[in-house]
Amino acid sequence: MFGAPSLAMSQSAPSGPPGECSTRKTGLAVGEALGVNLFVNRLDAWVLGEETQRVNFESWARNLRLGWEWDENGFLTNMWAHPLHGGQYFNAGRVNCLSYWGSVPLAFLGSWTWEYFGEINRPSLNDFFMTSLGGIALGEMSHRLVATIRDEQATGSKRITREVLAMLLNPVEGVTRLFRGDWKRVGPNPPGHDPGLFTVQLKAGLRGVEQDSTGLCTSCPTLVIDIGYGDPLGVDFAEPFDVFTVHVQVSPDGGGLNALEAAGRLYQVDLTAPDAGRRHALAVTQRYDYRNFTGAYAFGSQSIEVGVLSRFPLPKRYRLDTKLAGDLVVMGAVDLPNGGVGERSYDFGPGAGVTVEFSIWRGTKRFVSLRNRAEYLHTVSGIRADHLVTFSEFELMVPLGRRIGIGASGDVNTRTSGYGTDPRDTRQVTEGRVFLTWTIDP
Amino acid sequence: MTGATRLGIVLLVAAVALATPAAAQEPMRSGLWAEFGRGGGNVHLGCSTCLEPTVRYGRSGYVRVGGSLTPRLLWGVEFFGLFDREFGSTEDGTTLTLDNAIASTVVLWYPWRGGIYFKGGLGLAHTELVAPVSEGTPEIITSGTGSGLTFGIGLDVPLSRRFSVTANFGMFYSAIGDVALLESVVDDVITTVYQANFAITIR
Q1: Does A67 reach chain B within 8 Å, measured CB to CB?
Q2: CATH classification number, B28-202, choose in 2.20.28.10, 3.40.50.300, 3.10.350.10, 2.40.160.20
Q3: Any chain B CB within 8 A of the CB of A106?
Q4: CATH classification number, A196-440, choose in 2.60.40, 1.10.150, 3.50.40, 2.40.160
Q5: Is the separation of the CB atoms in A300 and A289 below 8 Å?
Q6: Do residue B147 and residue A104 have CB atoms under 8 angstroms apart?
Q7: How far apart are the two ends of chain A, measured CA to CA in Å?
Q8: Is ipTM strictly over 0.85?
Q9: Model confidence over A302-322: pLDDT tens digits?
Q10: pLDDT digits (tens, 9 = 90+) for B97-122
Q11: What pTM value is reported for the model?
Q12: Which residues of B touch A267 (CB under 8 A)?
């Protein structure tokens, strides 16, 4: 969970889900998930005139008979837009009081029905993977984030502003609440409104990117957002995603969205006593990764990670946090240099990887972090190949005050691909950043 | 009557006979558990250039072992296989048989008090195709390994606190990529298995 703030204080997780729910409405949740499909399909067909959305019984029968294929959509569409879409299916369950696990089937149901019945194209298996799994991860995080934005005790324009902002991040919840009359209902905030350990850190600065000794970008502006929700060794496990991190990087002249990495705790077992000096825990984490450094490399994956988290006290109230983890990449994507079909210039495949992390903290501030990660991908759609992608990342932060600081970070990313008997293709991308930081502690 | 059919009938009869007294018993969903199932189903083999999928029928079986996160949420590892060797059919003079196996991490979710559960799982898939070129010519064996995905729905009928019989239906998707078959390469192969099983669960 590199790049995201964490906090040292030990406290109990907020009780109950972030949204206050009294009655589980499973039927309504299923209806809303399928309603998302109906709405998007009719919007595309009637308003946007998309021919691929003009479905009929014949297209349904053909899709059921022919089954899955791989589509040719672009990297951003498949690896980012589809997971966002999947989050709407998932949150149709969350907004109707279903638990995380209760909402998981909705993500798969919504995606499956869209693939078979929402378009005349053959159902796309990569879409099914990305929409469902990515939708669960991004959906649960947005569900928790908007609970911190909404304020059930506010009224007037302040209330509406917060509700609108929350709806932009989580449309299906916002619309459901609007129709339910929740936008005007005043009452106590649910526990998820104030989750306790929750920090947003903005890092604005400049970056330089170099690929194989060729400069791609020098002194280009970049913005990094790190969100930390909970502390894996400070909050007892209560429910999935009660601890998660989000790392976003946006560079206006560097391809837009460069990175969106999210990791949420699914389950955790403490290996030491809560009051032990040295803490260890075995954690299962769901990961979503999107990296698209246009002109350099693209990598994305949906994975499940199992690892040991450790915390060691250091002198003067400093501490060392470490993580050693292995992961199974259920479906990943890596760019295909000088190749591809249609909009698609990348391949899909499963894989596995390892991560090693070290970071030094004092209180709620992280000073140094180092992460090494290696992922192996085996192509199952595209040119048959085996890929090894590695990320080595270093960050140094110096606080100048409670909220302000300066920092520098650097990444060395390599990718080695073997295409049959051809010589291995190896590329290396190096990026350096300097930035100012602003920490928000809502 | 095949062994799987006989097993299914025996389990079904046992479940019906014992379900009433067992209904009063709360099934124990804590600690470790293991499940053994047999059944049958079909497999659809498709690819990016296939005009129509190839469909075969075969026997299936699985072993599932795991632990209990909560009484309504179980976690486990599942090993599933579908084998159509016994059911290999001939089309256009070529016999094509297919074996499909998936090893996955699964989650079983019991949303209600009863024994109905939903299953979802992710893992690795392996598919093997066997096609003799002609009579007397050695079989060509090709295989692929890739991503596996499974979903299912089932019903547990407790016989006691420690034993249940289970009927379930599952879908298994295997994305194994390109496979070399005869003198050509079949692009981006995906297999879809639909299967029904009867099983015994020990807790």
Answers
A1: yes
A2: 2.40.160.20
A3: no
A4: 2.40.160
A5: yes
A6: no
A7: 20
A8: no
A9: 999 999 999 999 999 999 999
A10: 778 899 999 999 888 888 899 999 98
A11: 0.86
A12: 69, 75
